[in-house]
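Late entry, evening session. Most of the bench is empty. Finally got around to the prediction I had been postponing all week. Sequence below, unchanged from the version circulated by S.P.
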Amino acid sequence: MITISDQGTKIKEGHITKVEGAIDGVLPPTYKNFLLATNGGIPTPDTVDIHGAPGSPTDIQVFFGIGREVQSSDLIWNIKLISNRFPGMRLLPIACDSGGNVFCLDIFKEFSGGVVYFDLSASNPSPYEVAPSFEVFLEKIRVWS
């Protein structure tokens, strides 16, 4: 079980609708409920294993939220950043690690909601599968050992 500190200000369904408009799709219910409950923040514990990724395991520095004070923690800001970096790919950035690499909901597979990880320091970043759903992703977060 994870706890989220430094949660964002409470949001409503209308905020979710704006995000869905930005990605031209519907958020998976578990992720939508997570945003409504926390609006992002810092998880404890914060470690996740990424099969095949260099430097795995890694941390989750922050979950992005809507209207966050720190621009790099804002969901809409990150949507624009990732869509510019990976044109044509349908990704929803949901969190980053301390190295600035991103965790995304895979929305290019018919809005499957699977979580992928991109090592942005790689010359040609490609996705590493992390979990088949946001719910499973949350279950995989563990204490650093």
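Two things to note before I forget:
The two ends are 16 Å apart (CA to CA).
The longest helix spans residues 13-23.
Will write this up properly tomorrow.
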